[in-house]
Amino acid sequence: MKYVYFPGCSLKASAGPYEASIKAVGKRLGMELEELDDWNCCGATAFLSTDETMAFALSGRNLARAEKQGGTLVTPCSGCYATLRKADTYFHTYTSVREKMKTALAAGKLEYSGGLKIRHLLDVMVNDVGLEAISKATTSPLKGVKVAPYYGCQLTRPTDGFDDPEFPQSLDKLIKALGGEPTGFPMKSKCCGGALMASRPDLAFDAVHKLLVSAQWGGAQVIATACPLCQTNLEFFQPNVNKAYNTAFKMPVVYFTQLMGLAMGISPQELQLDRALIPVGDLSKAAASAGGEVERQSA
Amino acid sequence: MTVSKAAHGVQTPEPSTEEAAPAQVNEFLREISALPGGEHLRACIQCGTCSGSCPNANVMTYAPRQMIAMVQAGMEEELLNSNSMWFCESCYLCSARCPRGIPVTDIMYMLKNMAIKKRARAGDKKTAAMVSSFVDTVAGSGRLAEMPLMLRMYMRTTDPIGLVGWSPLGLKLLRRKRMTIGGALKGEKVREIGEFKAIMTKARELGEAA
User: Fold this and answer.
1) Does B206 contact A43 at a Cβ distance shorter than 8 Å?
2) Would the N or C end of chain B have less CB density within 10 A of its end CB?
3) A118: Cβ–Cβ under 8 A, 6 or more apart, which residues?
């Protein structure tokens, strides 16, 4: 099956390792991922916050180009996924939105008819490639590796997605198919703080702190994410969170495709695990070293 | 009509003296209801599920349930000048849980759109600056570059010291090649920049006309 691959801006910058692991794993699984020609930024929450018409036109350019290229659009970024999906839903639901999108696109000689399917990479892995095929491709099972399955918010919400909005299971099942052990993670679909990390880190640190405590509570030695922004907030800002909350977390945070690659015997270098800020180390070692000691705040 | 700024409870509008007035539809409510998604707002039963689900309700001047009540009460100025919608993380938990199917997160976006359009005093200047910096960066090149975004944001908030605070992280990212100087400064651009700008210019016109 052919997919139009929409990487999003992060995968060409700080989330480069996500893209490297997607390419390595995709090749191993025989997936045909063809990058969307001349894609642009999805607009994220910033454009929707500023001017909805511009936000929908921005997404619309991607939808129009993907429809022309042919195939289902697949993106590994939950932000891009939610934003493109919203533009498409509004295009179908509201005549006023549809007319404006068409008029704006026509100014660039583009057209969107509304026939595109928009999917997240996790959905495609679990439901198209399938857990059985993934299990078969697993040559070095992640035996005893305790993984916190982190879904974040925009992957499964608001509604009508591929998994339950609040208690999703896809990533749990995928980790099991790789031979790993998904841990109990009550905060698994809570937000990482999103873009507020740039403007109001105080609020985002609180979100990340709660997630780390929750992952540790379940005995995780590594957190797996399906979104570049979740990965950034959870990994890059762990030292800041430790300082703010008097904790000592050193929890590695990987992209779920990096875990898939490891289980398929692909080298850590090819998966670019050496670019992690918090070293992943030897996952077969016991979970004990991963968790920070939480010193309860005297509230 | 006098309105209370108290964090708890929202005064209802004074009863209309006109007979058979089409009950309590103020201009603000009419405006929001006319926007795509806004038509659901009047279905609110004030159950508070949205506020109870919101990760940032504790720092908002008005929590989501109150915000909806304020739209219904026509308290435009108080609401648009508040920090409330700027603290929305767009996590969509309120939307997923609302028993009346109100797209609460989308209403937060509408309020931000309106606050910008009507030049309300940004309730949280830093977040508003981040959002506009993001938009300016992408509108120019079609793709997001991290350094220009951060530079723009800190210029807007005139906080160079805040920018310096990011340097330890920047160095770490450079060391692990999670960021390169050239890539960070220039970023990527769309190839068909003419096509891209024509679409965005038209969309801006359509948005302003609306």
Assistant:
1) no
2) N
3) A63, A72, A73, A75, A81, A84, A85, A88
